[in-house]
Amino acid sequence: MAAAAAGRVLPASPNWYCSRCSDTSADGRFFGFAARHRICLLDVSSPAAPAFYGELIGHTDRVAAFAFCRHPAHGGLCASGSDDGSVQLWDADSLAPLGEHDLHQNAVSALHWSPLVKDLVVSGDEKGIIVCYWHSRSDSQQFFPEPRTIFCLTCSPHNENLVAVGYKDGMVIVIDISRKKEILHRLRGHDDEIHCLAWCPVPGEERLPAWQDELQEGGVPNGDLSQDTTAKKGCYLASGSKDQTIRIWSCTRGRSVMTLKLPPTKRRGGAIDPAVKERIWLTVHWPCGRSTEIVSSSFGGELLHWDLTQPGKRKWTLLGSSEGQNHSRIVFNLCSVKHQDKELLFSISMDRDVKCWDLSTLECSWTMPSLGGFVYSLAFSPVDPGCLAIGVGDSMIRVWNTLSMSNIYDVKTFWQSIKSKVTALSWHPTKEGCLAFGTDDGKVGIFDTFSSSAKNKPPQISSTYHKKTVYTLAWGPPTPPLSSGEGEQPTVTLYSCAGEGIVFQHNPWKLSGEANDVNKVIRDTNSIKHKLPARTEISWKPDGKLLALGNEDGSIEIFQAPSLKLLCTIQQHHKLINAIRWHHEHGSQPELSYLIASGSVNATIYVHNLKSVVENTSESPLTITEPFRTLSGHTAKITSLSWSPHHEGRLVSACYDGTAQVWDVMKEEPLCNYRGHQGRLLCVQWSPVDSDSVYTGADDFYVHKWYISKQEHTRPPQGKKSIELEKKRSIQPKVKAKKKKKPTGKSPAKQDLSDAVNGDESMKDLLLEENGVSDHEGEKEARETELPDKVSMAVSKDTSSSASAYSPFSLSKPFVTQKATPVKKDPPKEKPIFDASLKKKKPRSILPFTTSMDHRSKDELHQDCLRLATCLKTKDHNEDVSPDLGDRIHLGLFADRASLHNMMDVEGKYHLENGHPELFQQLMLWKGDMKGVLQAAAERGELTDQLVAISPMVGYQAWVWTVEAFAKQLCFQEQYVKAASHLLSIHKVYEAVELLKVNHFYREAIVIAKARLRPEDPILRDLYTSWAALLEKDGHYSMAAKCYLGASSPYDAVKVLAKKGDVTSLKAAAELALISGEEELSASLSFRCAQELLLSRNWVGAQEVLQQQKTLFGQRLVFCLNELLCKCLSERNPCNRKSPVPPCYHSWELNRDASFFDMVIKVWQKVLGMNTAEKATCALEQLRSIEHPPSTSNTHPKQVLFHISHDLTLAALSYQAAAWDEAVKSILGAVTRSYDAGNFTLMQEICSIFLPDGCENLRDKVDSTNAQSMAACKSLEAFVAYGLLYDLWWNPPKDSTILQNTGLDPVLCPSEQTALEQSSISGHSSPEDTPDQTATKMDENLNDTTEFQSCEPESDSRTSSVNLVDRQSKLNGCKVLLSEVTAALQNTQRDIAEVQQILADMIHQHQQQRNNLQESTNGSIQEDNVPQSSETESDKPCSDMNQINCKDEVKETITLPELTKRLLEAKQKLAEFPDSLKFYPFPDVLECCLVLLHIGSQCPPELCEQALDLLRKHGTANVYEKAARKFLT
After folding, report:
1. In this structure, are residues 289 and 202 in contact, taking their beta carbons and an 8 Å threshold?
2. How confident is the model at residue 1137 (pLDDT cuts 50, 70, 90)?
3. What's the rounded Cα separation, in Å, for the pair 261 and 1063?
4. How many other C-beta atoms are found inside a 10 Å radius of the C-beta of residue 274?
5. Which of 97, 132, 466, 681 has the fewest Cβ atoms surrounding its Cβ within 10 A?
6. Is 1182 exposed, middle or buried (0-12, 13-18, 19+ CB in 10 A)?
7. Could you give the 3-state DSSP secondary structure of residue 841?
8. Which residue in 1115, 1100, 1282 sits closest to 1188, CA to CA?
9. Contact assessment for residue 1181 and residue 1225, using Cβ atoms and an 8 Å cutoff
10. Lowest mean per-residue pLDDT among 211-215, 828-832, 1242-1246
11. Over 704-764, what HEC string results?
């Protein structure tokens, strides 16, 4: 088990952007998280610090979901889901797989182990499929509730059948898995990705004091669920979304009961740049047993603890009070575990730290760093021995204080200015905290890791960059030109060696200066003329006297400092050198310090003793070919070596075979082999403080500290074992170039690097990983494998690589340089090409037949020579005759032109037969027969861009013809735009435009037409109008408007823009019309827009719109009056019901003491500037010219009110001009309009607002000589009295006895209502109900209009108790209603209406009989139709009046002449009444009589008499007869 073998581990980073890829076991022992395609398990049972337990290995792609079983008996069981589509089950204790299923066809994105069913695992994938898997019986069930991408899912802890699922588009659903296809709730509210769902751990939904969503929406929507049932049954669900809100949902109500918005917390250590749209991942966690507390992530890594019972907005507390406790980047997952009496919370974050928090104190207990890339380099500080620097592929350096007692994971991270993989590290030999680093993109720099401000201090960067990856860094004594310069010099300088094979010397005091190429000094000192080998490794002897350079060709050269004189060359390895290490100098045997160990791409390690070489005095350099010791046993390339500082002659090596090996060099014996890593080892360091421990780093993203004494193996794996290890490591993620991770904007904070797999290691690493271990030769270390820059010269040296993974980078040299500049390192995105592609693919031969003929047997070839000689000889004798080569056509190559043509024809035919027309065309081009080729290709539809390009060589006409043919061919292939471009090339502009137009490529057609034709060309206008018509049809109105403008028809543009009819469209259309000079149209649109705004009660907006139009001044007055009227009505009838749209009133100063008309006129003058008589007259004329249709009960209440405002505006203007006759008529118009609309209460309100003292003073001001005016005035008085009459009836005095006729209900009987409905009042058919009904109907109507909500009549402002005397006088005022002459007129009108109705019915009946007759003669059976007709007759919703007539008809049938006679008589009677009487409406007199009689004892006796008298005379109609019966008998 890995944990036993390794002492301490820095693990791979948890995966990013997963809703649940980490979890804790139920018993609190394990915390597991997904890291790339494996799961890392930590033992967290000790509160002080976690211990690495092991890994679960088996998936072949990124693990996106992970969960433990919550059942106490099976605490070690867990499940994981991966992008490879599989779900695997594991036993954490033994790290063994227990089973898997591949029921998902797509990447698994969410998974949960049911808390209640111990063997149920529920998982969901990217396409929306949910799989329930019962592992103990291997049973499964699939659901597909929504075709959306699942982001998270979670099983309810209280009901085993409920599963909540969150989707990418913000939808949350709750499904019942026991009932297939059933979605219990669709929870809508979020409008972006759902990142996390958490059920409340406590069942029940007892209301918390702050459930604000509910209070706002007012009560429970779906019927009143009593609180108890809700509280007992349900359970709350919390969801966190990318829209920056957390919602708490009730599962009984299926709706949100609380919304928490993330507070904009300030990032410690610097404010957020507002320009950078901040990354957010909102995860939520509901701790055990706490129903009112939630922990959530926030912006930038902060964690918030929410107390849901807190009132007010601030419900949150920040976790981690002190600096540096919080994560520095977004947090992805939270999960908790009970530990003794404490509850611990674990978090994983983009900053690659795993943190543990104590929920009782909200403080961080421990932090475990993790690594997001290959571990390329390890280096112990010589000054501070426990300080280990780690260079990682996630562009960060970790400095681990391995000796820290308080915190075993005391790690500092450095990331400033690195921005690339850290491939090499080296500590300064004497200066504390001075760390040199080299990167994948060739950068060399120095960090100060020691100073207190170091954390945020950027490094110094050398101004000299390498062109490729930095392999090695080493500090050594200065060599020329640094050593020979004047003035003070550094004692040590920094040497860097990189992939392009060059070693630079950098001056650490002056990194901004130019670095020196060491090769220059070597050439000068040793007078070398030939090309120097490419350098791949560099190592200084600790005393600074000798420098060893390893080369790509496998040689090692030893130079003497400072002039770098070449002492000797070691020719031992024959492959690229990866590692060279000198033995330390502090042993008991000084001669050992001359040992130098080296490892290369082949697996053997050689140790050489250079003592004799150094002591040799000869001038010329020596060559060594015999090693001092040979260490063999590894089976792949050596990547790193380290001598033990505690022993003599003891070495540890790291290798691509996935193991580290300790050797006794002097005995050439393997001592111990470490196999704990899951990948290839890239670096190794022997601990400087503990002789038994070694640190290794690998491409599995891990650093292991392990103990030599605890290892069971002594030598590297051989044969089978080696193959098994190879296999184990080859389970690596498949490369999915298309894997779309969140796009990450580069922020000034830690660079995000690409998000592949772990969010960082970009595709190069994956390419490498896919192949697992491979013995790739001719390259430097692991780094080379994934850095495209490292193609190095190795490629040319070794093309027979076995690793497909490298292929994209191992293209031949020229390709690489052309394709990418040296700085850019984005790897090619295509899938890796396989081995075959490494060998250059041979192009197809253009003369295959001939070539094959020249590869026949020797005899045949001899015969060829003889035949050719014979033919040529005869040709010499007879020049005109072409030599007869017979069947040896291929000899045409050596004979005359005719024979060659013959041969070419045969070759061409061969190409066509084998499906290579392009080679045939090439041959014909050589032959010069291009025209034939073009014709043949055009006929077969095989023209290509290349053929078209070379067609001009045939001639201009041929070229034009070819282009036309190609355009036709492209049209068949539906490549219209390309076809049009080709037509343009032969100047066929109109054809190109027409082609695009016909195929609806309008945009492209317009571009061409505008660019190539005259501006006035009619085709352009035609294009615009055709496109506009199409756009208009599809509802793209604004785009269509632009087209019309382009076609210079602004009028059409305005019309189309206004088509949608909403406020913004109308506003824009009106402005457009104004700009285009269409003032009348602009005014009508502005008015429409204002009316729309009026419907949403926005008077301010309406006035702004009208203001722009001079011709709408009159309408501005109407809108102003309408606003004041609505305000007044809503004040008089306040209503408790909140309206959905709050009204938007002006804040005008109003004089409340003046009459309503005076108040309105004052506002007009002050605000709207109506301060001259001309303006008033002008407005009056404008308004008089507008006729509104009469209102009916179907007219919208707001419309009625607007038309009334229009009438009252006319009245107010007449009032101002003292034209009383007109004023009276206008007020009457307003009153009758409300009466006709069936809005009785509104009528009463208007009378009391505008005529608070009745009509007394009006009567005096009206011209008494004018019959019309007097009639109008009388009509108005009657309506005022009518309102008053009902008021008195509905509101009996408080102290009065109960209505006299106790037996009689003051509601008219049904048949009476109908007559009242029918009663025709002065030519208007008034749709009146009985008074009571009318009233209730009015009330409903008023409640519908949100302008003024009338409350019940009892609470009405008019219901003050009125003393009896006052009532008597008021009742006397109603005398005006009992007009004898009007009653007679109304009776006559009723007669006419009745006769007309009977006539209409007769005609209708007659028509139906005719139709029936026709049908029966047409062959349909009459019996079937008779019942039908009678049915329709009786079902017909005819008015009740009609039904009464029907009853009469049963008694006696009236003939047509009789009816005509009755009609004539009634019309003559009607003509006798004066016109003024007929012109103005009047309340129904008989109705008023009945009301007076119902009032009873309080009514003055003479009035009662008069009423009874009128009823006797005129109440002949059925309905009145019945109603009056009880008073007349």
Report:
1. yes
2. low
3. 31
4. 7
5. 97
6. middle
7. coil
8. 1115
9. no
10. 828-832
11. EEEEHHHCCECCCCCHHHHHHHHHHHHCCCCCCCCCCCCCCCCCCCCCCCCCHHHHCCHHH
- Res. 98: pLDDT tops 50: yes
> Amino acid identity, residue 271?
A
pLDDT by residue (tens digit) across 485-499? 666 788 999 999 999
Alpha-carbon distance values, 901 to 448, 870, 897, 924, 933 (Å): 77, 20, 6, 10, 15
Which pTM was predicted? 0.55
The helix/strand/coil state of 540 is strand
Read off the pLDDT of residues 1303-1338 as tens digits, 9 standing for 90 and up: 334 433 333 333 333 333 333 433 344 334 433 333
DSSP designation for 1183? H
On the CB side of 305, how many CA atoms lie within 13 Å of its CA? 16
Joined together, the tokens standing for residue 563 give: 């002039």
CB distance 1090 to 1119 below 8 Å: yes
For residue 1198, give both structure tokens: 């707001």
Residues 656, 775 contacting (CB under 8 angstroms): yes
The two structure tokens encoding residue 1476: 């003024």
Closest by alpha carbon to 797, among 784, 782, 820, 813? 813
Strand 1324-1325 relative to strand 1320-1321, pairing: antiparallel
* Sheet architecture: strand order including 87-91: 63-68, 77-82, 87-91, 96-101
Tell whether the model's pLDDT for residue 1451 goes beyond 80.
no
- Report d(CA 1242, CA 637) in Å as an integer: 97
Helical (H) or strand (E) element with 97: strand 96-101
Q: Which helix (H) or strand (E) holds 198?
A: strand 194-199
Which one-letter amino acid corresponds to residue 1036?
H
Checking if the pLDDT of 760 tops 90, the result is no
User: What phi, psi does 284 have (nearest 5°)?
Assistant: -130, 150
Q: One-letter amino acid identity for 740?
A: K
Kindly give the residue spans of alpha helices, DSSP state H, lying in 1173-1196: 1173-1184
Helix axes 1220-1236, 1267-1290, angle to 10 degrees: 40
Q: Which residue in 660, 558, 670 sits closest to 614, CA to CA?
A: 558
pLDDT, tens digit, 9 for 90 and up, residues 1008-1060: 999 999 988 999 999 999 999 999 888 899 999 999 999 998 999 999 989 88
Average pLDDT, the chain: 81
**Amino acid symbol at 1340:** E
Smallest CA-to-CA distance from 1094 within 1083, 1104, 1084 is with: 1104
Please give the backbone phi and psi of residue 31, each rounded to the nearest 5 degrees, phi first.
Answer: -125, 120
Find which of 1-15, 376-390, 728-742, 865-879 is predicted with most confidence, using mean pLDDT.
376-390
- Contact assessment for residue 1488 and residue 1374, using Cβ atoms and an 8 Å cutoff: yes
Q: State residue 246 phi and psi, 5-degree precision.
A: -110, 130
DSSP state of 1098: B
Q: Which residues pair with 580 in a beta bridge?
A: 598
CA 1337 and chain centroid, separation = 49
- Closest by alpha carbon to 793, among 535, 452, 506? 535
Do residues 681 and 656 make contact, with C-beta atoms less than 8 angstroms apart?
yes
Q: Which two tokens stand for residue 641?
A: 């070596």
Range in 255-269, 545-559, 1422-1436 the model is least confident about = 1422-1436
Q: How many CA atoms lie within 13 A of 355 on its CB side?
A: 30
Which burial class, exposed, middle or buried, applies to 1009 when counting CB atoms under 10 A from its CB (0-12, 13-18, 19+)? buried
> Which residues neighbour 486 within 8 Å (Cβ) at sequence distance 6 or greater?
none
Tokens 């012109």 locate to: 1479
Tokens representing residue 1439 in the block: 């008015």
Q: Which two tokens stand for residue 52?
A: 């690495």
Tell me the C-alpha distance between 1284 and 358, whole Å.
Answer: 76
Q: How far is CA 1210 from CA 831, 1115, 1117, 1118, in A?
A: 81, 11, 10, 9
Secondary structure tally for the chain: helices H, strands E: 46, 59
Asked whether 13 and 758 are in contact (CB, 8 A), the reply is yes
* pLDDT score for 431: 92
